[in-house]
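chain below, 285 aa
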Amino acid sequence: MAIFLQNLKKIAVLAVATVAISLSVNAQTWYIMGEYIWSPPHPQGTFQETHYQGDNVTIGGVEYNNIYVQGQSTPLGAYRTEDNQVYYCKRNGSSYDDEVLLYDYDLEEGDFFNDSDEHPMLVTEVAIITDHNGVQRKKISFEFMGLPDETEYWIEGVGSNKGFVNACNYTPTSDGAIFHLLCYHIGDDVVYVNPTYDACDIDEIDENIIQNNISIYPNPAKDIVNILNNNNLNITKVEIIDLVGRVVLNTEKYQNINISELPDGQYFVKIIGETTIVKKLFISK
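prediction:
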């Protein structure tokens, strides 16, 4: 398993470095970070993938755009956009599955998505954000019914914070892979950057060396959390971010951070200094 993760990491880093070679000028590109969450004693690990829009394909007389993982010759599937809806056909062997509705950007607060599913998604908030080019886009936040800790948000015209083709997926709790959209490009233009990570191209090897020397304790935490800084990094700011990307606590301290006002749940701790590091934090009182 460890060898598999190491090889996957090498492939992913190479893919990010060479993405510009094979993409056309106007290609849409999604940079995605993933985490392997295996049951102990299997190793944990992270990886990056680059998804990009490729060639056109006709399915049942309808034209779609194929989506690929950088470095792979077989598409993951194909999508098309009609008004504010996005439809997707997953690739299955040498053919494509039936079309499904992947995104509906016309949804408003209180609406449901995937009503027929075991855990439909309830729209809890619709906000307007401004992307890196000054364009206003809807941000639609969801909760999965029956899964109180499971959330997701979409950026209109970009996709899910879990990655474009990973929309509407439940996050595994013990096994499998969790995906996070880092950023989205159209050609050379950065359109959207995930506020939790605030980066597109992360040098996985260097980041992991630093990550292994930075830890959070106690974790889970109740009232106070501390950051163990074994690297003696110059930490200038610490942000605690909830699962929908909101900064819920901002401080220049990294010892005795008071989290007593934050509700139970999972958060990201963004440690900012000479480099930026993101760690998971669980609050349980």
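The domain at 213-283 is CATH 2.60.40.1930 (Immunoglobulin-like). The chain is about 10% helix and 50% strand.
thats it, cya
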